[in-house]
Amino acid sequence: MADSCQFGPCSEAFQKMKHELLEEWHAFRTELLRDIKLHMQGLPTSDATSPELAKVQQDKGQVAEEDEGQQSGDVAVTPQAASVAAAPRVLELDQGAEVTPPRKRRRVQQDETPNPKASGVQEEGDRWLLPNFQICEQLGRGSYGTVCKAVDTRKRRPVPVAVKKMANVFAWHPADAKRALREVAILSKLKHENIVKLCDVVVPCRTSACEDIYIVMEACDSDLDKLFCSGINLMPRQMKKLTYTLLCGVNYLHSASIWHRDLKPANCLFNHQARRLTRDLTDHVVTRFWRAPELILLQKNYTEAIDMWSVGCIFAEILGMRKGMQIHERGPLFRGAVCLPLSPDQRECWPGSDEPEQHDQLNMIFDILGTPEPEEVEQLDGDARSYVERFTEREGKGLEFPGVETTAMNLLRRLLRFSPQERISAAYALQCGWFDRVRSQAMERPAPNFISLDFENEPEMNESRLREEFLELWM
């Protein structure tokens, strides 16, 4: 009996290894949360004031301005069963306009009592009519509203939650309101530990006077963007865990026929257990640094491979946190200053410019990966093909990550293929041997079925239908 347990769970060697791994993990978690907290409070961390980091942060800030004029497509539907593929999983709009809900707020009715805890959280004149929740602080603004940290005063939820207020949602353009409804409806159907959990949909009143919708979601401690800007380094196992959980979340989305379309570090959340959570399903089509070539080139028939390019870009930033790397050496892999033809002030250069912009996003990609092969260029539409052919042919300097394991580099190269047909899927990437020490079969499970929405094929939804669908989610 003793022999059979020599290397089993009851053996001394096994227990010793388990103890050492737990100690290593708890030490990392404590240090990570401390540094992230300091960073979020604006306190100095190592190299936090470096001019290189400041430049990266400035570049990231400029991306939002550029993207105001970018185009995005309609919701993509796979041919397999009218299953929904959400535009950016941090949603945006078609024909280029980002959702900008009306700023004018309605007056509070006499029988409504504003939440006093919410004063000062949002812009002047805005009130949060959210019974049973105490609003703590504003976390940020998204395409569809303001997000605040809150606590359920009924104590049903012992931990804080994130609440998104969609103000005056029924006064938006019907297409915009439908996209907001789609985001909430999709979240309500996703059940995976690596996807942000939708806790509740709160409609303050069930009458026609109700104009605001509150989306209550799982709150997380931080996101990968803040982690990348911190002064800490990651051990190999920690880099594997972050990348693996990212892939598990994306694999679940794709198996449900959902395409995120805006994967970037700021949309990759994690909690105190370093569990990675995907958030924000929108119609926005990927922020510049993480945007796939086929989106840059306005190819209409793109697939879920656009998400895999974004995963590759995020994976490269995770590898940039390895031991020995300084904070000024980090940042997006492809850091273009403009993105033709999506940059509003550069569109006149498409496709007639004689020479592509030196700091164009696509040019930055070619500097590293090299220009595509002729057979890859032939797969592009006419204008896109002509534009790519104007770039100076080059091999590229290659992906340089000294000290990174060969299996990890092979995975990165297969994620960052120019041709979407040659880019590997999330399910295929999860089979990489690099993840063997952190693998969990339960996390790799696909969705039980494709997600479809009953209202998706309705050409137009009036206010009455929108209210009906939102109320159905609430009940």
Automatic annotation (TrEMBL):
> Where do transmembrane segments lie in this chain?
none
Taxonomy, superkingdom: Eukaryota
Ranges for domain Protein kinase: 133-435
> Which UniProt key words apply to this protein?
ATP-binding, Kinase, Nucleotide-binding, Serine/threonine-protein kinase, Transferase
Q: Where does ATP bind?
A: K165
Where are the residues of the annotated region Disordered?
Answer: 43-75, 87-124
What InterPro entries does its record include? Kinase-like_dom_sf, MAPK, Prot_kinase_dom, Protein_kinase_ATP_BS, Ser/Thr_kinase_AS
Q: Which GO terms describe its molecular function?
A: ATP binding; protein serine/threonine kinase activity
Q: Which SMART domains match?
A: S_TKc
> What's the short name of a Pfam family annotated to this entry?
Pkinase
Q: Which SUPFAM superfamilies match?
A: Protein kinase-like (PK-like)
Q: Which family does it belong to?
A: Belongs to the protein kinase superfamily.
Q: Which PANTHER family match?
A: MITOGEN-ACTIVATED PROTEIN KINASE
Q: What protein am I looking at?
A: MPK1 protein
